[in-house]
Amino acid sequence: MAFLDMEREELERLLPGLDAALAAQPLMELESPSGPAIELFRKAGGPALLVPTANAGIGASPLQAVRVQRAVGARSPSLAVATTMHHFSVASLVEAAKHGGGFEWLLLEAIANDRKLLASGFAEGRTGQSILRPSITAKRHGDKVVLNGSKKPCSLSRSMDLLTASVSMADDTGVERLAVAIVPADVEGLSVRPFWRNRVLAGAESDEVVLCDVTLDHQMVVLTDVTADSELDSLHVAGFLWFELLVTAGYLGVASALVERALRRDGAPAHTRAGLVVDLEAAVLAVEAVARSMAEDEWTERTLVNALTARYAAQDAIARTAHDAMAALGGMSFIGSDEASYLASAATALAFHPPSRGRMHEQLCAAVDGRPLHIA
């Protein structure tokens, strides 16, 4: 079985035709802000990937989802980033449905049947700020909830049908807690502003989504037991698990596209090619090990620690393989096309996703010492 065959076969089984459709497009077309990648994903039924089969979805396992994201990342880095946010939002909605009032299951069926795309408005992008401190606030007004704030960057900002956002809202006792809001893209008070100014990953549509006095029915906001300083509940453990695995798999796919080009280059020494494969596949195996454990064991803070460990190890492996693959491809490849340099730049962007390694050093040390895990 050739490099990436297993992942591409999984993608073909679950989302027939998507890999061929992406492969038929020039890379830089897929990566442009107005490129076809997102609509190709929607047409192939991609929005239903993590929706349970009981809700008309595909019901992919964590291992299947990881392999799909790697295959997608190898074709279009921007699509891998954008769809990670959709899948993560769907997975969080599945978890919220276990504790909600029932509308979540109807929403999941609509996502699968109508191929709706979910953008993720969970906090990130503010240097030095905890990702458990949302930039969007929610206030109760009778049986309504009013939202204000913005999320930037927010992938799928222009293609989304719904926004799932982490918000801060007071409970009945006045304590500020985290909640998850489901916001229709066409609701009054929601707007999108330009934000992403880098051509790398521009196809992910990561602009700013602004909420100004957006009014929702209270059922569209699910209050959790988590405050910014508390231990994680099951909803947040599940959300972070899915996010870390899927985003890592997507970027491993981007690095895989670069390695695939180096493997095909005539004249690259065998020890160089083998080194690229060994380094990258070791990181992939670590991610897959966590995905397998998600299917077999209870999801706990230890599972999340393992996922973070695999993600940070993958960052190192991606940095090494991107550098070594570029060297193996040589100067003429760099001169003749910007695809390799684009992939190398895109692959290293995994380091910019939350939670950053620098903010998690103490938390990880505390967790392996037996104390509760806190996300910084």
Automatic annotation (TrEMBL):
Top-level taxonomic group: Bacteria
Keyword match Flavoprotein: yes
Alphabetical list of Gene3D superfamilies matching this protein: Acyl-CoA dehydrogenase/oxidase, N-terminal domain, Butyryl-CoA Dehydrogenase, subunit A, domain 2
Keyword vocabulary terms for this entry: FAD, Flavoprotein, Oxidoreductase
Protein name: Acyl-CoA/acyl-ACP dehydrogenase
